[in-house]
Amino acid sequence: MSRLLGLFVLLAASLFFTGLAARIKARWAGRQGPPLLQEVRDLRKLLGKGEVIGRTTSFIFRLNPPIQVAAMLFAALLVPVPGQRALLSFSGDFVLFAYALGLANFSAICAALDTGSSFEGMGASREASFLTLVEPAFFILLGSLALVTGQTSFSEILSRLDYGTGAAILVKALCVISLFLMLLVEGSRGPVDDPTTHLELTMIHEVMILDYSGPDLAFVVYAAGLKMVLIAALIANLLVPSNIGFGFGALAFAAALAVIAAGVGLVESFMARIRMSHVPQFIFLLPALALTVFGVLLFALRRGF
Amino acid sequence: MTLVLVGTGLFLSGGLVALFVRPSFKGTVSAIFAAAAQPFLLLPAGRVLAGGGVEALTIPLSFPLGPAALRLDPLAAFFTVIISLGGLGAAVYSAGYMKMYRDRPASLSGYAFFSGLLCSAMVLVVTVQHALLFLVVWEIMSLASFFLVGFDHSKEDVRKAAVYYLVAMQVGAACLLTAFAWSSSSSGSPDFASFGTVFAGTGLAPTALFLLFFVGFGLKAGFVPFHTWLPLAHPAAPTGVSALMSGVMIKTGIYGILRILLLGGGANPVLGYIVFFLALATGVFGVMNAIAQPDLKKLLAYHSIENIGIIGLGIGLGMIGLSLRNDAIALFGFFGALLHVFNHFTFKSLLFYGAGVVYMKTHTRNIELLGGLARSLPLTSGLFLVGSAAICGLPLFSGFISEFGLFSGLIRGLTVGGAAPRAAVLLGLAGLAFIGAMAVLCFTKVYGVCFLGSPRVPHREAISDGSALLLGPMFALTGFILLIGLCFPVILPFLDRLVRRFVPGGAGPEWAQLVTLFQNVGLALAVLAGMLVFFIALRRLLLRRKSVVLFKTWDCGYQGESPRFQYTASSFASPFLQLVAPLVPFTHRHRLPDGLFPEHASLESHAFDLVEIGLIRPLGAAIRRALGLLTWIQTGRTQNYILYGLVFLIVLIVWIIGVR
Q1: Gap between the Cα atoms of B259 and B78, Å rounded
Q2: Which of A65, B35, B251, B600 sits at 20 to 30 Å (Cα–Cα) from B193?
Q3: Cβ pair B372:A73 closer than 8 A
Q4: Closest-CA residue in chain A for B438?
Q5: What pTM does this model have?
Q6: Contact A132 B434 (CB under 8 A)
Q7: Residues of B with Cβ-Cβ distance to A66 under 8 angstroms
Q8: Is A271 on the interface with B (CB under 8 A)?
Q9: Euclidean distance between CA atoms B594 and B601, whole angstroms
Q10: How far apart are CA B288 and CA B305, in angstroms?
Q11: When comparing pLDDT for B314 and A294, which is higher?
Q12: Buried b (16+ CB within 10 A) or exposed e, B227-258
């Protein structure tokens, strides 16, 4: 029962995550910003509409939005809430998590190429090449955590890492930073991508969904929000200590998600989008940090911490 | 075992009978004989895999071979299944595909004969247990495939590719000959069973022997740096042969390595790491080069190299597990490797068959000229999509199951051992993830550019989907992919005895752990499949009474109409290729538009194989230079040659008398 509540928190949070980030950004810039419930209203409006579909597209284009939502929802079943096990948990489940996200990415890239437009092909190409840098980093990170905790499942890895020695805090900090960078890349937020436009200089994710409308667009937007929340949930699991009680755990979890959303908004307020040719250098930070984490842990292992 | 020999004979007879039949019937005859051979091969193999014990047969041959043993143990049975199914698929597919070459009856006879010979030789390769007989059938296999690669020998690049392939195979055969001669003379008998004593010996000899075997078999399998023949030979051959070679024949190299492991080779811990890192390099190098290719079949050939790397990674992990005495790691490593052998056979054959249909209908292998084939070839494109998703290891398809097995082994490897093994395993983990992400990049490019969007160059004539003969094998392979992807626990009992043989002691409890793990994975995948169906239905429901209008692609109001505005494959891959530029060298030739009214402008870019231009060509040049110093021996005069023979005889007689 408590696990279902955790899942519900995740699903609800994905409705407010982008809204909160946008609101923080607006307030920082001196504006009022859209109300927090705006995304909910937008989704409801879209679900009630019809669609216009491009003539060049095939069944892939229509199949992509359900795949997006299904894959993200499935991945949500694998992510634990602090103090609880995930609904689906077994050894190596983070591999299935990464590959479910991979399935969604594959489908999104194919759908973008399906429209037969160069804009969307450009976004698809950039998305595909950035993913090649993010995937190994994620595995190095999770592998390092598995190494130090001796566990092999999400729920167990993230719950055994408590605030203990200085080394543990350092490792947690590095992991949080790495996962936050991964959130920026996979969620297509600044400084990797600009979520407010799809112009040629900035487009990665926004342009891939340019041709969607109606319920399809609702599915895709919700799935994108859910993906960001899932990665934020991993960060929240690291931030919130696991020996907290159930009620407080859910509250602390939601608060952590809100803090991360605010963090995303702040980063976007401080940093403009990096020049497209410099973005790979920025994304290289991810595997670099992950390898640093691994190095620190290996060093700690040899010293017998 | 006699049944297996009957099946082998049927494949060969199919080739022989096809020589004498009318050209339009040759393919049908081959296919019928191949189908007839199936029960004779699959039933004994299935029985052995399911636990029916080993089947053996001894052929009493006289000197110099001596009695030769043939055995169908679980390893041989597993590969026999792959060879049998692959041979049937190729025969049926070729019956439809080779109609393109109806005007060349002599070549078609050769094709049918050598296909039959190839399949029967491959079955013998995996069952023979006698060193010299093994080399004979190995060589027959190489030669049969050489003639098949050179089918279209009127084209110069096909001839060059075939000869390159032949040379590479002979180098491999030379290594194997040395290795087998060494082990036979050390152990006193050419029978495989006696090699265990050689590998159990001390000193550097067992390690060197294993490496020699590895190079010989690695040349056939396509490990880097021995892979350079693969991207030339597989596109040059007709599609049925490409699929057979890529899906089945290179696996005989893997079979050889596994057989050596079962005989006791590779006990030195260092060898496990060598295999592991070489396989990792093979996987990464293969897929990077695949991304750079515009030729559809060359791209698939490089992907075969990548998957051989993944299989080798599993084998290396298994060897590391054995040296660390951790049964779980070893079990998962070998499990992943063996299952991936079968999985790769299914999806690579499927992809090649699809590429063949595309070539047959559009007469080009250059993906930059294709596009929008999902509308003209709906069935082919759907099946190609299944193959693409499977090769990327996406959940719900078979590729995920074998890669998950490898990942499980790697993750377990992170939790045991000292710092060095853990660092190596982590590099393997990151590498496998990197390979997977690059495979997604490559196959979204291939599928998207070939089948989605609109045709970049308009079709000259209307094209229709492939015939039943072409699509039939593709559907069957898709069935296997979905079966393994969705209902994997059904297949597990067949792999039980096979995988556990590689771990001393049988690893019963670890196998039970593996079974439970995959049952959980199966449950999770069922949930994913259910959610997918639910959301597809939900979308239908939401759109039921709403308007769905088909219109021009919105593209934010962009008005460019021409299909040439679509993203090209090279543009799609270029951000990534710029990142890895040192590893995939490109040459660009361009003529820029100049003047006030520019008329002509062109850009030509070509990707090179780094190992080919950095290692093989300089090596070849150096060997040619060295041998050039000896050209004075070939004077062209018969008198000199008789003199050489006389001198050799005298030296031989003196040596024999002196030594004895």
Answers
A1: 12
A2: B251
A3: no
A4: A132
A5: 0.93
A6: yes
A7: 532, 535-536, 538-539
A8: no
A9: 8
A10: 11
A11: B314
A12: bbbbbbbbbbbbbbbbbbbbbbbbbbbbbbbb
